[in-house]
Design brief:
By secondary structure, the protein is an alpha/beta fold. It is 39% helix and 21% strand. The termini are close together. The relative contact order is 0.14. The mean pLDDT is 95. Pathway: Amino-acid biosynthesis; L-methionine biosynthesis via de novo pathway; L-homoserine from L-aspartate: step 3/3; Amino-acid biosynthesis; L-threonine biosynthesis; L-threonine from L-aspartate: step 3/5.
Length: 376
């Protein structure tokens, strides 16, 4: 049985779902000759870890309790009642995490898994890669930081996996890497990489007011608590930057042209969420509807997409043919078209659910298993 020590950063929806996947897949992994040994789980304030990370692990009961505590909004510190080791405080937790990474990195290796949404993990990640640890990311921020941070993080390419940073569990990164590795140069990528904005654009296509569609998306749980986090296009821009850097573009986030679906005067600094939804967004309906009509007269539809081609890297609304893969997109699926030498006229198309804790966590789990050969 191959044992893979694992330390998880982040106990939000994706992190909790990952732990549940690990527990529920024990028998499957045993058949494959693999055991995922969770030695520690960390949130922004506390770390719970096994008493001896070389030989012991957090048992499945403890992992289930972690999920229960965090889903109820409780602190990991309460898990001390179960007899586990606890470190409280942000600074103290980070120091202990690095101690564990240094110990296991030299001894058996460690899968350092970042399912947070924080930029605070970047410094730790840059340190653990030199300790012999493998890094698995669902967090996009480390890959969209400065080029210096990015170069450090990918300096050991065999030891990093980040499929779930773009398209959740869809094989976007793996497919792109296969094309690049085979010497098939990718010259154009265009894709709808936000399930929220994919849903919004396909609904306004049917004539529904933009404001009503956004409110409906929020009620369905498709958006962040503040829908402007989705409508700003920043999440799509981060995904576009990850893809562009994989293609060799040495650019930063501020190099990307980003079209926000609301003006600055309706931003979080100027207007509350309630004000935006009640009075602000309604004023955008006519403009969006005019753009929908204009596209329709041209035989096209509107989609919020990222475009990477040559030196061009931008995200925003584009008119696209109705009969194209992106034009046929309905609902919250992600769709990505890759054009290369081999896929010149008919692109390589990847489509499917590109969001959701379950799908994203499944992608992270697959990434962890993909590096098992690096462990003794």
């Amino acid at each position: 049985m191959k044992n893979i020590p694992l330390l998880l950063m982040g106990c939000g929806g994706v992190g909790r779902q990952l732990l549940q996947h690990i527990v529920s897949c024990r028998s499957l992994h045993a058949q494959q000759g693999v055991h995922l040994r969770v030695v520690g789980v960390c949130d922004s304030k506390s770390l719970v870890f096994a008493s001896d990370v070389i030989t012991r692990e957090l048992n499945d009961q403890t992992l289930s309790e972690v999920c229960r505590f965090k889903s109820n909004g409780s602190s990991l510190s309460a898990l001390g009642d179960l007899g586990e080791c606890i470190v409280n405080g942000n600074t103290e937790s980070k120091r202990k995490v690095l101690d564990i990474a240094a110990l296991l990195g030299k001894a058996t290796g460690l899968a350092f898994v970042d399912c947070s949404a924080s930029s605070e993990t970047i410094r730790m990640l840059n340190q653990v890669v030199d300790m012999g640890c493998c890094v698995v990311l669902a967090n996009k921020k480390p890959l969209t930081s400065t080029m210096e941070d990015y170069d450090k993080l990918v300096s050991y390419p065999r030891r990093i996996r980040h499929e779930s940073t773009v398209g959740a569990g869809l094989p976007v990164i793996a497919s792109l890497n296969r094309l690049i590795s085979s010497g098939d140069p990718v010259h154009r990528i265009i894709g709808s990489l936000s399930g929220t904005l994919g849903y919004v654009m396909s609904e306004v296509e049917d004539g529904k007011p933009f404001s009503e569609v956004v409110k409906a998306a929020k009620n369905l749980g498709f958006t962040e608590p503040d829908p402007r986090d989705d409508l700003s296009g920043m999440d799509v821009a981060r995904k576009a930057l990850i893809l562009a850097r994989l293609l060799g573009r040495r650019i930063n986030l501020d190099s990307i042209k980003i079209e926000s679906l609301y003006p600055d005067e309706m931003g979080p600094d100027a207007m509350s969420v309630e004000e935006f939804l009640v009075s602000g967004i309604v004023s955008l309906d006519n403009d969006v509807q005019e753009r929908v009509k204009k596209a329709s007269l041209n035989g096209n539809v509107l989609r919020y997409v990222c475009v990477i081609e040559g030196s061009r890297c931008e995200v925003g609304i584009q008119e696209l043919p109705k009969d194209s893969p992106l034009g046929r997109l309905r609902g919250s699926d992600n769709v990505l078209e890759m054009y290369s030498r081999c896929y010149k006229k008919q692109p390589l198309v990847i489509q499917g659910a590109g969001a959701g804790n379950d799908t994203t966590a499944a992608g992270v789990l697959a990434d962890i298993l993909d590096i098992q050969d690096l462990f003794p």
